[in-house]
Amino acid sequence: MGTNGSGKSTLSKCLVGHPDYEITGGSVTYKGEDLLVMEPEERARAGIFMSFQSPVEVPGVSNSDFLRLAANARRKQRGEPELEPLEFYGFVMPKLAALKMNPDFLNRDVNANFSGGEKKRNEILQLSVLEADVAVLDEIDSGLDIDALRDVADAVNGLKRPDSATLMVTHYKRLLNYVVPEAVHIMEAGRIIYSGGLEVADILEKDGYEGIKTLIKKEAAAGREPVAA
Fold it and tell me: pTM of the prediction?
């Protein structure tokens, strides 16, 4: 969480290797390897997924073809057999049902003429199909009505595994009411300035970011470190 321009989306895009960003310092280790030397497609095949704030429309490419090719690239990386079209249909149908998505989504072009809510559901469908190990979800709650938010949150919760991790970027506590985080981190000017539990989101909702800054001053005066290890 953090104010607009604090660096949340920048961090997310750097993790997945967005070409518009150049990393000039620091390091990221993923499964014992240097993540920053990997190409974006290598990161995706290795299990890193990002849901974008404004998903790109890809006219002329059907959802079914896109999802099957992506899933097979991930399966090949893991040494698993690729799915034929009929096999993929059986694989993806339960995932559509979990998101309460109409199977007709498979026949539509990727995000083309989708509503905001449909695009967000489609992003989570991609996450489910890829069975990612690390999911970076950048404001998946934006543009969703309350019912769609619950459906997407239920899907995210259903995808949790002991060996997976989810990093969510959000401005609002309403998402955290459905996907309860293990930790809440506050970012400012590209740095984590405060970490805590769900109560941090409660402070934000009540007192805004000034409330967090006040809390940091109180803890500093008491000799406590405000950023979780």
Answer: 0.87
Q: What is the mean pLDDT of the chain?
A: 90
The answer to the question of residue 1 being in a domain is no
For residue 205, pLDDT over 70 is answered with yes
Local structure of 193: helix, strand or coil: strand
199, 141: one domain: no
Could you tell me if residue 2 is inside a domain? no
Mean pLDDT over 143-167 rounds to: 89
State percent of the chain over pLDDT 70. Answer: 98
CA–CA dist 106, 125 (Å, integer): 11
Q: Is residue 87 part of a domain?
A: yes
- Number of domains forming the structure of the chain: 2
With a pLDDT cut of 90, the percent of the chain lying above it is: 68
Quote the domain boundaries for residue 62: 8-180
Ramachandran bin of 139, using left for φ above 0, alpha for ψ from -120 to 50, beta for the remaining angles: left
Same domain, 89 and 172: yes
Instruction: Tell me how far apart the alpha carbons of residues 180 and 205 are, in angstroms, rounded to a whole number.
Output: 16
* 110 and 221 together in one domain: no
pLDDT at 229 exceeding the cut of 50: no
CB burial string 37-60: b at 16+ within 10 A, e below: ebeeeebbbbbbbbbbbebeeeee
Task: Cite the beta strand spans of the chain per DSSP E.
Answer: 29-30, 33-34, 48-51, 58-62, 109-110, 134-138, 165-169, 184-188, 191-196
